[in-house]
Amino acid sequence: MRNPIGNFLDTVVELFYPSNCVGCGHPQDFGTFLCNDCKATSPRIQAPFCRCCSRPFDGVIAGEFCCPNCEDRKPAFDCVVSNYQAKGVLRDLIHRFKYGRQYHLRRVLVEYLVEATQDPRIQAGPVHYLVPVPLHPTRLRERGFNQADALAETLSKRTRVPVLRCVERQRYTNTQTRFDRVERMQNLRDAFALRKNNNVRGKHLVLLDDVLTTGSTLHECALVLRAAGAESVRAITAARG
Ligand SMILES: [Zn+2]
Ligand SMILES: [Zn+2]
């Protein structure tokens, strides 16, 4: 994890650094991290989209709908709010944040999560805890930090909802990008567990990750939380892959 001095230095650098767009580098008003042109490279997904997984649908559907994926395999989460495609500048920012160790980009990415918390599906009920999707300790050592954890912490400061690190990754899973959906699900089976001495019974939880791909990871985490008696498990991500 990050040490306090590292966090402090980040903050000092951010305070005294001129405000430039993190996408294109052009000067911005103080406090603006991303210009409108860069923002526009990953536009917000418009309705209709699946009420459960937010997957967009090309075409016209009146009212709410549930996509075939969610109909087939009832996900363990109640919904996942993910309103931006991981493309354009947003995709680059996530990549730089995650693999380039540009830790300060959490401030930009958290805006997408703040927006997700304002979705009616999240606003509909109380949220007791934000639960970041965990990384396996080996992966954590390689990467230096857990991107979901860093985003949860930043979001918690904004929303005052506490972070609960109650899920752990107990199996080292192969990197998933090469797998199709079924392989991913097999790869992830039993990869997660409830961390000792955590009680989520009766709680309303919001899982949090940087990117939604097939939803298998969130599904597996939600299964664990449901089995532990969580009352509801919703999820938010900054973007969808
Ligand atoms: Zn820009
Ligand atoms: Zn769906």
Quick overview of this protein structure:
The chain is an alpha/beta fold. It contains ten helices and six strands, in the order αααβαααβααβαββαβ.
Question: What report would you give on this structure?
Answer:
By secondary structure, this protein is of the alpha/beta class. The chain has one domain (44-240): Rossmann fold, CATH 3.40.50. The protein has helices spanning 4-16, 36-39, 68-72, 88-99, 106-117, 120-123, 137-143, 147-159, 181-188, 216-227; strands spanning 79-81, 129-132, 167-169, 192-194, 204-212, 232-240. It has a four-stranded parallel β-sheet with strand order 1-6-5-2, sandwiched between helices. Helix 10 links the parallel strand 5 and strand 6 (232-240). The model has no long low-confidence stretch (mean pLDDT 89). It binds zinc ion (2 copies). One zinc ion binds next to helix 3.
Tally of helical segments: 10
Rounded average pLDDT: 89
Tell me about the biggest sheet?
Answer: 4 strands, parallel
The CATH class designation is Alpha Beta
Bound molecules: zinc ion
Secondary structure: number of strands: 6
Looking at the overall shape, the CATH architecture is 3-Layer(aba) Sandwich
How far is the first residue's CA from the last residue's CA?
A: 26 Å
Strand content: 5-15%
Q: What is the chain-wise order of helices and strands? A: HHHEHHHEHHEHEEHE
Number of domains: 1
Decide which structural class fits the backbone: alpha/beta
